[in-house]
Amino acid sequence: MDIFYNFIKCLVFLIYCLLIANITFRVLIKHRNIPSSMSWLLTIYIIPFIGIYFWFFFGELYLGKRHKKIANRIWSISNKWLNELKSCTYIFQIKNSEVATSIFQLCKHRQGMSGIKSNKLKLLTNTKIIMQILIRDIYLARKNIEMVFYIWKPGGIADDVAIALIDSAKRGINCRLMLDSAGSIEFFQSPWVTIMRNAGIQVVEALKVSLLRIFLRRIDVRQHRKIILIDNYITYSGSMNLVDPYLFKNSSGISQWIDLMTRIEGPIATTIGIIYSCDWEIETGLKILPQLPNKTILKNTSNKHSSIQVIASGPGFPENMIHQALLTAIYSAKHELIMTTPYLVPSEDLLQAICTAAQRGVEVSIIIPLCHDSILVKWASRVFFSELLEAGVKIYQFKKGLLHSKSILVDQQLSLIGTVNLDMRSLWLNFEITLVIDDSDFGQNLLCIQKKYISDSQLIDKKIWSMRAYWKKILEKIFYFLSPLL
């Protein structure tokens, strides 16, 4: 019996050593930044069993075999369609503003297309009004409606959107709805799924979460995009989930979530449509390529001086693209840089870019929520405050709710708006989308919104911050240790 137990102990120890060696090798051969690699190695060696568990669930970016196979081939199959789109030379902007030139060149070389012109843009900040405008657009739809959201929570005005979608499907509109399995768990447990499918709406549960699937793929890779496409001409994108702001997480005591959405009419809907098509194909295996832009309709579009690029991230899309775009935008700033984000856990490169911008004379402001829905991120973000404040960055804490808007404004000209938070999860893992907009009028509108955020915020004083309790500094360091893993 003793021999048997000794054999079992030796076998377990051998398996443990092989697992540690295997993970160490994987960490070292991956092109990770040093803080991330060190965090993983320390986690694995200091708390080995927990560290091994976290590695297998959160350490490597992978999808299920079917998802991965489709993701690897979607762009090669779409090349013919993309070449046809490039032949529509009337939609492409030839020249960009000085501050936007670098980022648009990056997008052109990595994504193969110049910026798209002839779009009518509108910034929307009130969630209830956004929903009302959306419901109107749904009822006016003539051909198709496509949606993807991270969260759809039934109740309140979200149900009004559902009813509008059902009515449109019943009158013959082709409706597709894709929702993240984890983010929209309440929706998939509600009767709305059956009601919608019975009405003819194609409802897809993206990146399904189940006990079986956690052994087959990474469970924290999420479909975080927020996109609405109507008739291949009207599109919405931004930070808003499909929820009633007066009902969503109202028991948390944080108050209402503050979001920002962009409604656009024009040919940019076509490029967003190809992103939706790829996401749909990854989940269903079916391709639904959008129609090419209508030249006749574009003649009536007045705004031909602006330019938009769409950047998508996630498996199957250009790697590291959003991170590169953020860095390029920050380094392009000459006078003013304003950023809003609910989650501030930047990469080392982004942190240095922001600090460097302030140190070379750019007026840099970062607006984050005072009250937070994530304790981990709240404490992890605080460790960056001292370095940012020391560099001259102004950090504002928004007091009137949870500021969920994700925006960057460079020199009041170049705007970045979308779903991307300034944290590792958005930068490296999730399916995200960012609109890069070169338009001075749009920039002025965004500036007004950001200034309103600032007026409803409190500025962190560098001296007072340096005098915070010692236990808080220790807690911040502990969460900083975990920040590359968040």
Which features would summarize this protein structure in a list?
alpha/beta, Endonuclease, Chain A, 486 residues, 8-stranded mixed sheet, 7-stranded mixed sheet
Choose one word for the global shape.
Answer: globular
Spatial strand arrangement across the major sheet = 9-16-15-14-10-11-12-17
Gyration radius, in Å: 23 Å
Could you say how many structural domains there are in total? 3
How would you describe this structure to a colleague?
The protein is α/β, with parallel strands linked by helices and 486 residues long. The protein folds into 3 domains: 2-59; 65-97 and 114-306, Endonuclease Chain A (Endonuclease, Chain A, 2-Layer Sandwich), CATH 3.30.870; 321-485, Endonuclease, Chain A, CATH 3.30.870. It contains 19 helices and 17 strands. The strands form 3 sheets. Strands 9-16-15-14-10-11-12-17 form an 8-stranded mixed beta sheet, sandwiched between helices. It has a 7-stranded mixed beta sheet with strand order 1-8-6-5-2-3-4, sandwiched between helices. It has a two-stranded parallel sheet with strand order 7-13. The longest helix has 28 residues, at 2-29. The chain starts with a helix and ends with a helix. The model has no long low-confidence stretch (mean pLDDT 85).
Q: In short, what is this structure?
A:
With 486 residues, the protein is of the alpha/beta class.
